[in-house]
Structures are given as C-alpha cells and as structure tokens.
Amino acid sequence: MTQINRSAPVMVTGATGYVAGHLVKKLLDAGLTVHAPVRNPENVQKLKYLNAIAENSPGAIRYFEADLLKPHSYAQAMEGCELVYHTASPFKLNIRDPQKELIDPALLGTRNVLQQANHIESVKRIIVTSSCAAIYGDNCDLVKTANGVFTEDDWNQSSSIDHNPYSYSKTVAEREAWKIADQQSQWDLITINPSLVIGPGINPHATSESYNILKQMGNGTMKFGAPKLGLGAIDVRDLADAHFAAGFYPKAKGRYIVSAHNTDLFELTQTLIDRFGDDYPLPKKPIPKWLAWLFGPILDKSVTRKLVARNVNYSWRADNKKALKELNISYRPLKETMRDFFQHGIDNNLFNA
C-alpha cells in the first residue's frame, strides 16, 4: 500500500490541458500545492485559467519551465513530490507527421517523466493518463475479446503509425511506462484509461480533439448526419475524480478503464436535440456506412476507409467495474454531460470560430 502525504506538493504535467484542468482544480480545492511544469511560465494568457482557480481555492500552484521532449526537464518541478500525474500527451487526429506530432511526445514524454522519478527520492506514486486507445484499436477488435467486452487485460494490437496513429501513440507510451515501472521498486505506477473525454473544460480553447468534435456538432459540419461510430464516453469532471482517487487510495493498482457510457457518435448528438435542436444545425439522422466510407476521407483527411470499415456500425463495450468499485467514483448521465459541454461551447462562442 502507498500512503501519500497531502502536505507534499503534487506534480501535474500538461496542467494547462483539457484533462488536467479539472484535476488541478480538485487538487487546489483540497488545499494541496500543485507543481505545474509548463513550456513558458511567463505566458500569463495561457495560465490565466489555472491562476483564476488558484485565487479562489485554499491550495497553491507553482510553475516550472519544462519541455516534454527534453530529458531531465522535470527535475525541479518534481523535487519534493510524492505523487506525480503525467497527463501531457497530444490528442489530435488531423496530422501530417504522426511520429513527430503524436508518437514522440507521447513516448518520449512518458519516458522522460518516469525516468526522472528514479532520481527523485520523494516520489512514491505516478499516475499516467493513458487511454482506452491503448486497450483497443478498432471497434471490430471487440470480437477478439474473451467475453465480448474490453477490459484492463486487453491491449491494442491493431493500430500502427499508418492506421490509428493516435491510438498507436497511446499504446507504445503506456507499454513504455510499465516497462520502466517494472525495472524499479521505489514508486508504483497506475494508469487511467479513459474513453472519449467530453464535458466543459477549464480552458475553453484547449487543444483537444474533443473540442473539435463539439465544434463540428454545433457549426453545421454534421448537419446532414453523423455516423454510428461506436465509442465510450466519460465526463472530464468525473475523470478528474478518478485521477484524484487513484492518487490517494493506498490500494490502487494497475490499469483502470474510466468510461461511463457505451455509446456512439450519432447518439451523442441526439442528447442535444430537445434543448438545442431548434437553434443549431444538429444532425437528425445517422449517415449510412457506405456514405461515410465514400465521402469521409474526402471531407476529413483524418478519416480513412479502413477506419470507417472497422468502426462504423460496430458497438463499443467496456467493463468499467474496477474503477467504480476500487476508486469509489460515480458518473454523470450522458445527457447532462453533453448539455453542459454544448452550453460551454455556446458561452465561449466556439461554434462561430
């Protein structure tokens, strides 16, 4: 069992990002001191959302200059910390160079953080934000599972740098994390494996594919329909609860699938129709698979015909019992999350950008 001293600072990489925002808020609200390594501590504009949270909480935040791809970059920020959260990793699908834009930041960033911990005696536990993308590659992989459901025992075997490179980046990064963890005995490793993260963020301009999907729902991109592309979904606020609990629950161990709903992209949009359908061009019907296969790659370079073939009209199912039981967390209803997320988009003028 690992007991974390709450008077010690907690380091959070990617603190200005979508996933980390609510985690930082939760840590600050609990009166903890957060060490936030960022690329430029002098960038007041980028840090204003975190600073606003800190000003209204009993905790404190300190910034340190660091670079995800630079070895030993996290030494100063990690000093004195017993608990380290590594959330920094890009989530974007429209890319030109998968190696440079996805795989290097995910893999090398994870390696740099975890190897640095080996040189900081205070570190007792590291929480890595992985993804369900490290558990599966395509929805049709479900047929290969033991009981027709994805679990923490599954690993993504079907992604590559050429097919689902984002999923591949999360897979190689998490495997590297477990490899490094197994080579030492100073600290324990826990991975949080969320499905698609949705819900209002701390920073409305965070660079996350979740925001791109939200914008497409509200700006007319999906007005002619959305595919029934199976996926899991988790509220970003509930995900923060899971991270927090994993950090301080002494018996936490291994991987945790954090996913509230087995759903699909079209169903996500339909949770918004009754409240926002009159004012925004939300899709009223699903796109047939053949149409998504034919035109998807033309309309969006991140969509390939192989991706459509292996994911659209396939269900997505994951077993989330381990996180619910061991971390003692609960999940918001899907409609509540989506309504809050869409209203967040309206309030921040995201659909006209």
TrEMBL record:
The keyword Hydrolase does not apply. SUPFAM superfamilies: NAD(P)-binding Rossmann-fold domains. The keyword Oxidoreductase applies. It holds the Pfam family Epimerase. Residues 10-246 form the NAD-dependent epimerase/dehydratase domain. It comes from the Bacteria. Keywords: Oxidoreductase. Belongs to the NAD(P)-dependent epimerase/dehydratase family. Dihydroflavonol-4-reductase subfamily. This is NAD-dependent epimerase/dehydratase family protein. It comes from Sessilibacter corallicola. The lineage of its organism: Bacteria, Pseudomonadati, Pseudomonadota, Gammaproteobacteria, Cellvibrionales.
